[in-house]
């Protein structure tokens, strides 16, 4: 027997969703990034738009088409992603940080291609930490309902709960990225949706289905309904 679908009306509400990787230049031809495909974030954008929300998708470089009805803002670096998010934040009701943001960037980007000839030994890249977009949103003056993701390879729940607490989030989706073929750069996912006082395990399913389940879980909390 299928549970009745909790159809919440997101009409008139605005989501900002970050998706994909960010990319930090080393020199004009090289960068630091990660394997994020953007699929989960794009699926969330599609599901939220389908449920009636206005959706702004702030996306790092991906190979994906823009979902129908979604307004997409393309960025490359973490700084650009933060700026784009801040610009849209005043009108935001729900923020979902799904991007795999590069935690570090190179302290000084070389203006010309780094040449082997100029170095007797491999160059030492000096890294500096990037701003935490999710944390800044959650601690902004009038914070939206803020949802994070936690990509973990060990101690999934404990690590995710720490992030929920530390970043002052309403909800976090804990993602085990240690399993080959799940999570990063794949079509399916399994996860635990955690909030301060609730826990919902989602079995392995497509990112499309998981997006619907996550938007649904947000609706239950946001509209404070019990199902
Ligand atoms: N995030 C962000 N800005 C950053 C780093 C992370 O907005 N500079 C967001 C991600 O989009 C995600 C959440 O924070 O929603 C958690 O990302 P994750 O990489 O799992 O956690 P970190 O806090 O970066 O900690 P660590 O990488 O050390 O596990
Ligand atoms: Ca990180």
Bound small molecules, by name, code or SMILES, are: cytidine-5'-triphosphate, calcium ion
DSSP summary, beta strand count: 12
In terms of quaternary structure, what is this? Answer: single chain
What is the first-to-last residue Cα distance?
Answer: 15 Å
Radius of gyration: 18 Å
* Order of SSEs: EEEHEEHEEEHEHEEEH
Which class do the helix and strand fractions yield? Answer: alpha/beta
Strand content: 25-35%
Instruction: Count every helix, treating DSSP H or I runs of 4 or more residues as helices.
Output: 5
Taking all residues together, what is the mean pLDDT? 92
Name the strands of the widest sheet in spatial order: 5-4-1-6-9-10-11-12
The percent range for helix content is 10-25%
Question: What form results from the Cα inertia axes?
Answer: globular
Uncertain segments are 1-6
Largest sheet: 8 strands, mixed
Family: In the N-terminal section; belongs to the HFCD (homo-oligomeric flavin containing Cys decarboxylase) superfamily.
Catalytic activity: (R)-4'-phosphopantothenate + L-cysteine + CTP = N-[(R)-4-phosphopantothenoyl]-L-cysteine + CMP + diphosphate + H(+); N-[(R)-4-phosphopantothenoyl]-L-cysteine + H(+) = (R)-4'-phosphopantetheine + CO2
Cofactor: FMN; Mg(2+)
EC number: 4.1.1.36, 6.3.2.5
Give a verbal description of the structure:
- Its cofactor is FMN; Mg(2+).
- CTP binds at residues 97-99, 103, 113, 131-134, 149, 163, 167.
- There is one protein chain.
- With 227 residues, the chain is of the alpha/beta class.
- Helix content is 25%, strand content 29%.
- It has helices spanning 39-50, 78-88, 133-138, 156-166, 207-222; strands spanning 14-19, 24-27, 30-32, 54-59, 70-74, 94-97, 104-106, 127-129, 145-152, 171-176, 188-195, 198-206.
- The longest helix is centred in the last third of the chain and has 16 residues, at 207-222.
- It is globular, with a radius of gyration of 18 Å.
- Cytidine-5'-triphosphate (CTP) binds next to helix 3 and strand 9.
- Cytidine-5'-triphosphate binds next to helix 3 and strand 9.
